[in-house]
Structure formats: structure tokens, C-alpha cells
Amino acid sequence: MAEQFQLQLVDSHMLYDSCRHMVFRRVDGQAFRFIAGQFIQLHFQHDGADLRRSYSVATVSEDPQSGVEQIEIAVSYVSGGAATELLSAMQNGDRIDASGSYGRFVLNAEPERRNFLIATGTGVTPYRAMLPQIRSFIEQANCQFVLLFGCRHGHEVLYADEFQAMHEQVEGFEYIPCLSRTLPEDSPDNVRRGYVQTQLQQFSPDPGTDIAYLCGNPDMVDDCFRMLKEAGLPVPKIRREKYVSPVIRTPKAPSA
């Protein structure tokens, strides 16, 4: 059952000009327990309305179910967004109500021979939290993980150093950033020009060996879902989490 608690901001930095990495701790001093891939909800008020916004936990831990001291999230700023207005103004020491953990977008206990992790934007956040589990699966089950991460420009590749290090150090983990707009001249060999959908198609998904996790832009998720179904993957082997920018809700006027 999800807990209710208050968080205090202890650190943050900009990942790029419209995306902020934020680090919180529980005010009550308790450890936070989660499964990599799950999310928290932040609770706040805007124009008299009670709102909640969901953010995948980005914290990297060898054993998150035993509890972590810090809750890390990535916040993508949305023009005119209620959460953007609040979170962009938060300073170290500020507090906010929260609850969690929630969600079933987690890795299967037994991996397939090939496991696709597909994301756009901050949809890559849960995969960061999964890195220790992925490393363990590769070492124990001799399986393969392929992370396809789509964004527009090179500076928008979130947590690039961590994913790239895993790509270079762990045989069985393939990391492919897909840039739809510009491809810097000094890009590593694994960076591609185009969309994740194109790269996925080139891997020729196989229903006998593969599972896919999709997280991020709804259009990307729908495109990949359709492509994977056409390749023969059954629906239970296509896991989905859509990131949708919410619309600010205006509270109803009281009755006369």
C-alpha cells in the first residue's frame, strides 16, 4: 500500500535548459522503498484545485526494496504547466507532499533472451533506476538488453554518462541514443540519427526471444506497440508507460 509523506528538496541541477534533476529526502527520516520502474506522486494546490503529478523514481540502488535515503526524479518543464511553476521555483529546504510508490512498469523477474528498453525524453528515467538489476540479469541469465533512447538533440540525452559507461563496460547491454534533429560530429559510434521506431525495426523483433518496455511520448509508444504486434509479439510481452503532459484544471465556481 502506498505511503503518504512529505519530501524536502536537498539538491538539484539542470540536465539541460528545460529538464531538472531533483533530489529529495523524506522529512520523517524514513527510508523510501520501491521497485525500479515505479513512480511517486507529488501533491500540491494550483488555483484552488488539488493536483497530483507522477514522476518515475530515478534513484540508482542495488536494493531499492530495502529502502533508499534519496528520491531522485527528472522534471521536464512544460510551458504554462502547474507543476512546472511550482517545481522550477523550489529551493533546497523547500517541502512538498508526496505519496508512493506506485506502478507495475517493472522488469519481469525472469528476463527474456533479448529485452528492449525504449524511451523518449524523461521516459528514460525508470531505466536509470533499473541499471543494477539489468547488470545482475546479464551476469546471471546471459541475456541481452537494448536501450533505445530518442530525443531531438545531443544535449537532451539524459544520464548519458551512466548509460554510455554501462554500454562500454557490460557485454550484453547495448545503448543507442537516437537523435531526430542533429547528430554532433563527435558523437560516439553507438549514436544514431533518426527515431527509435526506425532503430527498433532494424533489430527485427522476434516473439520467440524478445520482450519490450515502452516509456515516454504517447505517439512513440503507440507506434512501437503497433510495430511489435505486427512482428508477432503478444501483448503481455509489450509493457507500456505513457508520459502525457497534463492540462491545468480550472476549479468549478461554487453554486449560487
Commentary on this structure:
The protein has 256 residues and is of the alpha/beta class. The chain has two domains: 100 residues, Elongation Factor Tu (Ef-tu), domain 3 (Beta Barrel), CATH 2.40.30; 129 residues, Nucleotide-binding domain of ferredoxin-NADP reductase (FNR) module (Rossmann fold). The chain contains five helices and twelve strands. The strands form two sheets. The chain has a six-stranded antiparallel beta sheet. A hairpin with a 2-residue loop joins strand 3 and strand 4. Helix 4 runs parallel beside helix 5. The longest helix has 17 residues. The protein is globular and about 50 Å long. The relative contact order is 0.16. The C terminus is likely disordered.
Task: Note the topology.
Elements: E1 3-16, E2 19-26, E3 39-46, E4 49-56, E5 71-76, H1 82-87, E6 95-102, E7 114-120, H2 125-141, E8 144-151, H3 160-169, E9 173-179, E10 192-193, H4 196-202, E11 210-216, H5 218-230, E12 238-242
Parallel strand pairs: 7-8, 7-11, 8-9, 9-10, 11-12
Antiparallel strand pairs: 1-2, 1-6, 2-5, 3-4, 3-6
Helix pairs in contact: 4-5
Q: Name the structural class.
A: alpha/beta
CATH topological fold name of the largest domain? Rossmann fold
Output the strand order for the largest sheet. Answer: 4-3-6-1-2-5
Number of helices: 5
Number of individual domains:
2
Question: For the residues shown, what is the average pLDDT?
Answer: 93
The CATH class assignment of the largest domain is Alpha Beta
CATH architecture grouping of the largest domain: 3-Layer(aba) Sandwich
- Beta-strand fraction estimate: 25-35%
Q: State the major sheet.
A: 6 strands, antiparallel
* Low-pLDDT windows of residues: 247-256
